[in-house]
Amino acid sequence: MPTPVAPWGPPTLRTAAVSPGLYSRAILETFAAGEHAGFLAAGGRPLRPRLARALALADLRPGLRVADIGCGRGEASTHAARRGALVTALDFSRDGLALTRETASRVLGAAAGRGVALLQAEASCLPLAPASMDRVLLLDVIEHLRDWQVAALLREVERILAPGGLAVIHTLPNRWALNIGYPLLRGLLPGLPADPRSAYERAVHVNEQSPRQLRRSLEHAGLGARVWLEEWSTRHARRGQNRDYPDPARRLGYPQLARPVVRRLGRMAMRSPLRAVAANDIFAVAWRCADPAPGFRPRWRPVN
Length: 304
Fold this sequence. Notes:
Blueprint: H1 25-32, H2 35-41, H3 49-58, E1 65-69, H4 75-82, E2 86-91, H5 94-108, H6 112-115, E3 116-120, E4 133-139, H7 147-160, E5 161-171, H8 175-188, H9 199-204, H10 211-220, E6 223-230, H11 233-239, H12 248-257, H13 260-270, H14 275-278, E7 281-288
Parallel strand pairs: 1-2, 1-4, 2-3, 4-5
Antiparallel strand pairs: 5-7, 6-7
């Protein structure tokens, strides 16, 4: 595997993985802007809206074996363990694993050791047995991986999924919304920042997706999949209005996105073909091709 380098390195090194140093404790906690601390102080509640949506899709139940790949600060792993799942939390960042351990310990107490196992691993080579997982969580991970890493990771997901198992995926931004929808919205709201992403996101988001690109990657890995778009940006903006964000993208952009008129425009767009460029959140559920396609109880908007 190439030596990890910062994504702004020379062109000859652009295919290298993002450096683990960009996922240090200080960076992860600073980017959360106090939200993780609030999650801990409230005993592991509430979940961020996007995260709650993804975990609802996972249909977590006691005894399910869950792999949380790219566990980060540990909110998803901790929630799954609280629901009775047997969680294996994986990350290539030691600081991410340390934060997950602390999150599980704070929220779950003595049960943390039984409910959450921690493994340091590269996404392209998972130290898990074939057919050993009932659920695989890939939440805000894909956009941080190079194409070759995504291809290897999804092949690994197909390998570790048990019969009847599901992988739940969330990634953002939707490249169609970033390149088409956001400039149109900024024409209506010139107070929005020129780029909705922070400098940190521009550094670590080395593989931002479109729904079509993600679906093709899943299919090439031998997975059946449903991929669709949802709009959660205005909800997060409204929720974070009083938060002291370290970056101007959220500090200046969220008050604009939280305006009632923007929320109404978003709802209207999601009921029209404009949803392809209005929605910033890409969700997917994937399964082994040998298995029948699962039923979906929650409402969702498929992308064909």
